[in-house]
## 1
Amino acid sequence: MQTSDRVRTDTGQARIDAEPAGNPPAGLLAGLRRAATGLFAYPVAGPLVALVLILVVFSVTTSTFLNAGNLSLIFQQSVVVGTLALGQTLIILVSGIDLANGAIMVLGMVVAGSIAAGGDPGLGMLVGLAVCVVGASINGLIITRFRLPPFIATLGLFTILTAAARLYTQSRSYPINSDFMTILGEGPSFGLVTITYGSMLWIALTLILAYALNQTAWGVRVYAIGNSPAAARLNGVNVNGVIFSVYALAGVFYAFAGWQALGRTPIADPSGYQIANLDSITAVVIGGTSLFGGRGGVAGTFVGALIVVVLKNGLTQAGIDSLYQQIATGFLVILAVGADQYLGRGQRA
Amino acid sequence: MTTHPTPPLAMQAMGLTKRYGHVVALDGADFELAKGEILAVVGDNGAGKSSLIKVLTGATIPDSGTVFVDGAEVHFKNPLSARLAGIETVYQELAVATQLNIAQNLFLGRELRKPGLRGQIFRQLDKSRMRQQAADHMKNLGIRIQSINQKVETLSGGQRQAVAVARAAAWGKRVVILDEPTAALGVRETNQVLNLITRVRDQGLSVVLISHSMPDVFQIADRIHIHRLGRRAVVVSPKTTSMSDVVGVMTGALPADAVQSSLIAPSPPPETAGP
C-alpha cells in the first residue's frame, strides 16, 4: 500500500505549524553551543576538525611527522582497528557494544593459521571467516534471545574466547607463509609511499557499509532501533532480527580485520590484539557515534580510527612516552562522549 | 427477526471474553464501529478498555467471542495480522523514532525501494519518492511542516503526535485506533490533534478514540462507547446525551438504560451462519 493510493481532500482546517521545540538560546556560551550542535547535523565534521587540528599540531612540533612516508604508514597502522571498528559501529548504532571483537578476530586468525600450517591456506581462510561469524552470532543470540545486556554478554565471550584461543594453540603462534593470507600488507609503492591492498579494502568496506546504512531499509531500521526500540517494534520492524543481523555482519568485518592483521604481521598469535576491543570502541566514539545508539556512522569511525593512530604515531615522533599516549587517548574518549552527552542528548525526548 | 438496512460496519465484535486467572478483563463485551465515524471509547480505570482495544488490534487473543472486519470474521494472531486487515494503531507512548526524519518515520518498516536493479539487487531506497509521497500526505492532512527531512526530535509534542497519526492514516485502510492521543499535550496542541483526527475521518477512515478527556470526546466523537465492568454498557450520541450522564453511566451512578442508545446493529446481534 502506498500513501498515494487514496484520494485525499484538503479542507484547510487543522494546521500544525512546525517550529523547533524549545526556545532559541541566547548569549556567547549558547552561541558556541549552537555552533557545536550544528556540527552534529554533519556528524563527521567534529572528528574531521579534530583530526586536522592534531595533524597541524604534530606537523609544527615535530620534523618527522609530516611526510608522505609517515602518512602512508599511519594509514597502514589504522587498518586493523579501523576494520574492527566498522563492525563495532554497527553494534553501537543499535545501542550495543562488543568487548569480544578482538578475541573473535584472534580466534579466527589462529584457527586459520593452524589450518594453513597444515598446508591449506584457502580452507584456513574460509574456516577463519566462519569462526568469526559464528563467534559474533553467539553474541547476537545471547543478546536477542536471552536478553542479556550486550556489555555482559560480550565481556563473557571475550574471556571465554581469549582462553579458547590459547588452549587451541597451546599458547603457540603460527607463522604465516601463504602469500594470499598476507597480501593485504602488500601494495603498489610510490617512493616512500605504499598504498596497501589492506588500505584499499578498508576504504572499500567503509563505503559499502556507509551505503548499506544510508541507502537501504535495513540501515534505516538500524538507526530506528538504536533510537527507540519500542517505536521500531510498534512500527512493525523485526527488532531482534535486525539486531542479530548486526552482530552476525560485524563478524564478517572481524574476519576482514584478521586478514588485515596477518598482512601487518604475518603471525597468528593467540596473545595478540588484547586491547583491540577498547581501541575499536575508542575509534567509534571519537568518530562521533553515540554510545546511546541511533546516531553516528562509519564515515566518523573512519576518521576516529585515524585519530587514534595519528595520536600514537605523532606522540611517538615527538618522543613522548607511550603511557602519555594512553593518557591522551583517554582524554579524547571522555571529551568525545562528553560532547555527545551535552550536545546530542539534550535534544532527545 | 426483522431485517432492516443497517449502515455498513467497519468493525464489529460480539461476546468477547478474556480472563487472566481470576481476573475477568472482558466479560462478554460487544463492539461496533461504523464506517467513517469517530467512535470514542470511554470507561473508568479497570473497566477493560485496554483489553478490548488489545483484542481489536491483535495484541491479545480473546478466550471467546468473534471479531468482524467489513462483515467478515477475522482471527487476529498478532498485531501484524490486524495491520494487514487495514487496522492501524497509535499507541499511547509516542511511536516515533526521534532521530529519523518525518518521511523515514512515515515509511518505517514499509520502505519503498527504487525500481529495477538498483532496488532489487542493491536494495537501494527510493528516498525521493518516499519524500514526495510523505509531503503530499502531510499536506492533504493539513499538517504544515518546514521540511519533510526534519528530524522528528526538532518537532514539538503535538507535531510528533501528528506524525504518528499521519502514519496510521497513511497505512490504515479501514480503521485507525488512537490510544489517548492528547494525554501529554497542551490545550493548543490538543486542538490541533483533534482537528487532525476529524480530517482523518473526513477522508473516509473509521476512527476509534480512547480518551479520558470528556471535553475532547464531546468535541469530536460521533458516538460514544461506554465501557463498564468488562463489557459495553451502552453506546450514546454526544448530541443527545450530556457529559454528566456519560460520566454517570461510566461510574455506575446512572443505569445504562436511562440514556438513549445509539446502537446501529440490532442488539443482541444476529447469530452468524452455523457451521
## 2
Amino acid sequence: MTVTELVSYEDALAAYDPVMGLEVHVELGTKTKMFCGCATTLGAEPNSQTCPTCLGLPGSLPVVNATGVESAIKIGLALNCEIAEWCRFARKNYFYPDMPKNFQTSQYDEPIAYNGYLDVDVDGEVFRVEIERAHMEEDTGKSTHVGGATGRIHGASHSLLDYNRAGIPLIEIVTKPIVGAGDKAPEVAKAYVTELRELIKSLGVSEARMEMGQMRCDVNLSLRPQGADKFGTRSETKNVNSLRSVERAVRFEIQRHAAVLGAGGTIIQETRHFHEEDGSTTSGRVKEEAEDYRYFPEPDLVPVAPSRAWVEELRGGLPELPRVRRNRLREEWGLSRHEMQSVLNAGAIDLITATIDEGAPADQARKWWMGELARRANEDGVELAALPITPAQVARVCALVKEGSLNDKLARQTIEGVLAGEGGPDEVVTKRGLKVVSDEGALGTAVDEAIAANAAIADKIRGGKVAAAGALVGAVMKATRGQADAARVRELILEKLGVEG
Amino acid sequence: MTDLTRLTAADTAARIASGEVTAVEVTEAHLARIEAVDEKVHAFLHVDREGALAQARAVDEKRERGEELGPLAGVPLALKDIFTTKGMPTTVGSKILEGWIPPYDATLTQRLRDADVVVLGKTNMDEFAMGSSTENSAFGPTGNPWDLTRIPGGSGGGSSAALASFQAPLAIGTDTGGSIRQPAAVTGTVGVKPTYGAVSRYGMVAFSSSLDQGGPCARTVLDAALLHEAIAGHDPLDSTSIDQPVPAVVEAARNGDVRGMRVGVVKEFAGEGYQAGVMQRFNESVELLRELGAEVVELSCPSFDKALAAYYLIAPSECSSNLARFDAMRYGLRVGDDGTRSAEDVTALTRAEGFGPEVKRRIMLGTYALSSGYYDAYYGSAQKVRTLIKRDFDKAFEQVDVVVSPTTPTTAFPIGERADDPMAMYLADLCTIPSNLAGNAAMSLPCGLAPEDGLPVGLQIVAPAMADDRLYRVGAAVEAALTAKWGHPLLEEAPSL
C-alpha cells in the first residue's frame, strides 16, 4: 500500500473540476425475497431463511415478487423517472461463493425506471442530480472470513456462508455523471444520499438504515482539468455506508486524484476501500480489463410489463415527497432554510411532526428535540430516534409545562427521568416529586420571607425598578427548591409590593 | 398368465381398478423384469424398490377403502434422472451430483405422486441432457433393446430403453433439442415434447432454460396422452409455465382421425444425411395419411437450415450460466478441499473432475458466445434465427394443421460410432431442434423398421403451441392404421432379451 501525499482541498479545486457518479443499493423491506417466498427478517439464525430457489439448488426456479416490482416503480416515480412499459431481468454472470447460482439476477439494458432526477438542497440552493436508472436485482449471501487479522479474505483460514440475505430485493439507483458541483461536490454527494434516504423512507419501501446495510453507496469520482470537456479516469470507492462517510470519501478522493494528477501520474481505474477511522481510501482490486459479466436476458423469468393504468395508480398514491413536505413544514414552523437544514440533519423532522400531532406547540416540540434531546443523543452517540422517549411523552411534558405543573427546569428533569427508564412523564413527576409549588399559601409565605430578607431590593422595586424583581424570584425559587412556577412567583412579588408588572 | 410388463398403461390401470391385479403385483413384475434385463440394458441409474412397493401398496389400500383411483393409479414409471426426487438420488447423469439427495420434489414428481403413479427409479441420460446417444452419461452407456450394441438415443436413452425393454410402461423425458423424440424414434416408442411451458420445469435440472421441456414417453399414443394429462398444467413456481387449460389430449388420443386435416411436409427435412430406409418409411407414412383422409401440402421453411447453428449457440450459452452453480460450495462433488486450497481452486478442481467432456465443450462454447464483443454476433444472431424459425412455423400453420417429418435422419447408430465426432452427433437432432426453438408441440411415434437394418424409424408430428391435442389425434390415427397393417404393435418384433 502506497501512502498518497494529498493536495489541499482548495488547491485541488483550483486546478480540477470533480465529476461524480453515485450508485446506491437499497434493500427493499418486502416481507419475502425477490424470487422466492423466504422471509427477510434481519438477524435470523444463519441459513434459516433459505429454500431451494435462494440456495440455487439444481432445478429450482425464480418467481418475481410483485411487491418488489411495485416498490421499484414507486421509487422510479418519486425520482421523476420514466417507467419501462416492458423490461426484462438479466443474468450477471460471475463466480463467488456467496452467490448461490454464480449469477446475479439483475437488470441490464432494460431497467424498470430511467431518466429521472432528484433535487437536493445545498446551502440554501437547489442542486439537481440527474438519475440514469433504477433497476431491480437480488442481494448476495454474506461471507464471513475467519482466521485472518483483517476480516478480509486474505489470510483467512476459512469462510462461513450465510444465505439468509441471498435473494433479498435490491434496487440499484445510478446517477448520471454529476457535473458542476465544484467545491460543493462532497456536500452535494451527502445531500443526495440524505435526500434519497428520506425519499425511500417516505415511500415506505425500506427503512433505509445505512448502519444496517439496508442502504449502501458506491462513490465514483474523477477529476478533469478546469475548463476541460473530457472526463478523467474514475475510481470506484465501494461500500461507503454513512452519510458523513459519503462526504469524506468524495473529499479524500478529490485530494488524492489531484495529488496523483498534479505529480504527472495517471489515475488507475480501480475499486477502492473506504476507511471509517481516518476517512481515507486504499486500493482494492485493479480492473485490468473491464469485467465481462456475460449479461443475457434471464430465460427463467417472463418480462415485466407494468400496465400504464397501474403505474398511474401508483403515481397517484405517492405520498408527499420529503422535500415538498420539508418546505411546507418549514413555513408552518416558521423556520429559516438553515434551521430546517439542521432539523433534517438531526433526523428530527418526523419526531417533531409526531410530537406536534400529539398536541405540542411547534416551537416547543422543536425546542426539546433540537435542544436537550439532540444534546443527549449526541452525548450517547445514538440517532435521535433511538432515544428511549416517544413523541407522545415529549408532548406530555410540553402539556405539563403549559398547564403550569412543570417549569422549564422541572421539565428537563422529567425528561431525564424518562430517558433513565423511570417511566412516563407523569410517573417521573410523581416519583421524583417534581410538582411546581402552586399552593398559594405556601408560596405567599415564601414570598413574604424573601421580601423580609431582602428589604433593600424590595424598596428598589417599590421605587419602580421592576427588573430587580428577578433577584427576589431567585430567592423564592431557591427556597422552594425550584418547584415553584417562576412566573407566578413574580406576579405575587409585584402584587405584594404594590407595583404594576 | 398375462405378462404384466407387456400391458399398456391404460390396460394396467384398468385391471388394477377392477381388482383383477394389484398394484403391488404389477410393480413386482416390473421390478423382476428390471432385475432380469437391466444388467444388459442399463436403463436405470437408481431403482427404488422399497419406495415403489410402498407406493403400490398405498394404491391397493386406497382401492380397498373404496376410494376412486385416477387413470394411471398403480402404473409403474421410469423417471429421467433430471427431475428432483425428495430423498432419492438425482444425478443428471453427472459425477458432479453423484450422491446428492434433493431435499425437494420437482413439481412433475409431485404430480406423479398425486396421480398415484409408481416411480420405479431414475433413468440414465447424457450428462445434463447434453447428447443424442446417452453415451455422455458419467455412469456408462445404455443399450438399445433392439440391438444392445447400438445407442437408445439421447439424452433420454434410459427412459426409451426402459419402455422398449418392458421394464416400465411409462417414462418421463425432457426435450431440449430432441431428447424425448429422438430416443423414442430409435427405440420404436412414443415420445412427446409438449408446448414449451405446458409442463412445469420446477425441479427439472436446467440445461437450457428457454428450450427445456419435460414430457411423456410411452409405448402407445393413448398412454402418452394419459401421462401428458397427469403432468401438464400451470405451476405458480415456474414463471414460464402457461396459465391455460391443458388441451384435451386424452380425448384426442381416443379419437384418432385425420379426415379433412391438412398435413404439411417440409421439403428442408430431406436430402443429404437422410438414410434411405428412414425416408422410405416416412414417405409411406405420408401416403398413409393421405389414404386416411388428410390433405398433404408441401411446404418450405427456409430458416430451418440455420436451426442447428442457432441451437448450438443458444443452448450452450444458457447452459454456461445454468451450470455455474455447480461450484462445490453447497452440494455435490467437492475435490481438493484439503485445507490448503482456496475456494476458487476447489471450485476449479471440482468442475474439472466433475464435468464430462461434452459438458465442458458446451460451457466453453456458451461462455465464449456470451462474451462482450461476441454477444451480438453469436447469441444475438442466434436469437434472430430463432425468430425466423418461429415465423416459418407460423406461416406453415396458416396452411396446415400439423407438419410431419422423419424424427431423426437415421436409425440407431452403433455405440461409439459418433462419440468422437460431435458434429455427426449433433445431426441426429436436425429435425427435432426447430420445434424447441419455436416452442411448439411435437411427437415421435414408430412408423416401421428401416429395411436395410431392421431398426425402428420415427415419424415426427409437429403442432402449433397449445395445440398439443392435434399430435394425439393424428398420432392415434397413424398408430391404429399401422398396427392393423402389421397385425401387432411394432415392439413385438424387438428381441426378447
